[in-house]
Automatic annotation (TrEMBL):
GO terms for cellular component: phosphopantothenoylcysteine decarboxylase complex. Residues 6-180 form the Flavoprotein domain. This is Coenzyme A biosynthesis bifunctional protein CoaBC. It comes from Herbaspirillum frisingense. HAMAP family: CoaBC.
Length: 398
């Protein structure tokens, strides 16, 4: 679980987006965190403390003078063992309070009273004009200067019916940002390019050849790289997955398109990770019209042509990034993996242990480098991806 053992103070201020804070509180709990909710009076106009208590299983605090705390110092007690304070939603007024260090209710006092090592993250949620108002922007600059992390805001449809910047991030995006905040920034300032998913090679306008890759491993590595502080571009074949938050995704279908997208974006990259299950062959005589079945024994005659090897192409560039390849072998991984790394001319090759990795949520990896091979035991793909990023960052730094 991504937030196992973490204690998070979740502060709610006044805004329609409070209902999303309810969903986030549940998601944080499912990710292993214990969640302590604190609400401003304005927040209680939008959602009740009862709802938040039921969702988190913890008493909710709304008042600085709450007699339930024996020493009557909730602003101190609630933050001393916290791993992070997260304000969702964060109103215009609360941003202003934070910018000035105001302490006129429990939540604002608690933010000022928190120990310096406890990060404060805020998810602004407000009307576009309120967000763009010079006073708000001035306050936001102050927050950044003070080391407060801003999560969003996004742009889009707003509860008031207007459109624009100020819309709060979705709970799933906020969860990704909170998880990311706890990851070491091993790839800070690095640029990372990845491929993921299957490719789709058309036979005709409605049919094609593909494979069982779900894209889960590649997306997990992309997310882990971004969590580690990298600027990430993901060239993805067709998958059912959402792009990890903050990752630039370029959608492609065929191996040729994947190759072209990689080559167009490879300049200036520090790391290239080829996770995609790229089709080795495409149909050379693909039809521009849907093939018709004429009679009982009529079968189409497909001719194949070889696709470009994207990884080999990047590895052959004069100013190549650090290159990592993947291998899905059905047998003799130790032997084939080592040979494939040398043949592909790359410093690191990652083998999937067992060929039943496609579509699954877990995996086990074997890493081949110049020194030999090491194993990363079976775990969920996100955990493995974080371990892999650690291994890659260490090798890039040496
Ligand atoms: O040779 P093989 O297909 O087993 O190599 C797998 C590795 O090469 C993976 O990293 C895959 O993403 C990459 N690859 C590629 N372009 C291809 C075929 C494989 O980038 N056409």
């Amino acid at each position: 679980m991504d937030l196992a053992g973490k204690k998070i103070v979740l502060g709610l201020t006044g805004g329609v987006a409070c209902y999303k804070a309810a969903m986030l509180s549940r998601d944080l709990g499912r990710a292993g965190a214990s969640v302590q909710v604190v609400m401003t009076q304005a927040a209680t106009q939008f959602i009740t403390a009862v709802t938040m208590q039921a969702l988190t299983g913890n008493t909710v605090y709304t008042d600085q003078w709450d007699a339930r705390m024996e020493n009557n110092m909730p602003h101190i007690n609630l933050t001393r063992d916290a791993d992070a304070v997260v304000i969702v939603p964060c109103s215009t007024d609360f941003i202003s309070k934070l910018a000035h260090g105001a302490c006129d209710d429990l939540l604002s006092t608690l933010c000022v009273a928190r120990p310096a090592h406890v990060p404060l993250m805020v998810a602004p949620a407000m009307n576009v004009e309120m967000w763009q108002n010079p006073a708000t922007q001035r306050n936001v600059r102050q927050l950044r200067e003070d080391g407060i992390v801003l999560l969003g805001p996004d742009a889009g449809a707003q509860a008031c019916g207007e459109m624009g910047e100020g819309r709060m991030l979705e709970p799933a995006q906020l969860l990704e940002e909170i998880v990311a905040a706890f990851q070491p920034k091993l790839l800070a300032g690095r640029r990372v390019l990845l491929t993921a998913g299957p490719t789709f090679e058309p036979i005709d306008p409605v049919r094609g050849i593909t494979n069982l890759s779900s894209g889960k491993m590649g997306y997990a590595v992309a997310r882990a790289a971004r969590e580690a502080g990298a600027e990430v571009t993901l060239v993805s074949g067709p998958t059912a997955l959402d792009a990890p938050y903050g990752v630039r995704r370029i959608d492609v279908q065929t191996a040729q398109q994947m190759h072209d997208a990689v080559m167009a974006n490879v300049a200036g990259q520090d790391l290239f990770v080829a996770v995609a299950a790229v089709a080795d062959w495409r149909v050379a005589n693909a039809s521009t019209q849907k093939l018709k079945k004429n009679g009982e024994n009529d079968v189409p005659h497909l001719e194949f042509a070889q696709n470009p090897d994207i990884l080999a192409g990047v590895a052959a560039l004069p100013h190549r990034p650090y290159c990592v390849g993947f291998a899905a072998e059905s047998e003799n991984l130790e032997q084939y993996g080592a040979a494939k790394r040398v043949r592909k001319n790359i410093p690191l090759l990652v083998g999937n242990i067992g060929h039943q990795t496609f579509g699954r949520d877990d995996n086990a990896l074997m890493l081949f480098d110049e020194q030999g091979h090491t194993s990363l035991p079976r775990a969920d793909k996100q955990t493995l991806a974080r371990q892999l990023v650690r291994e890659i960052a260490r090798r890039m730094a040496s």
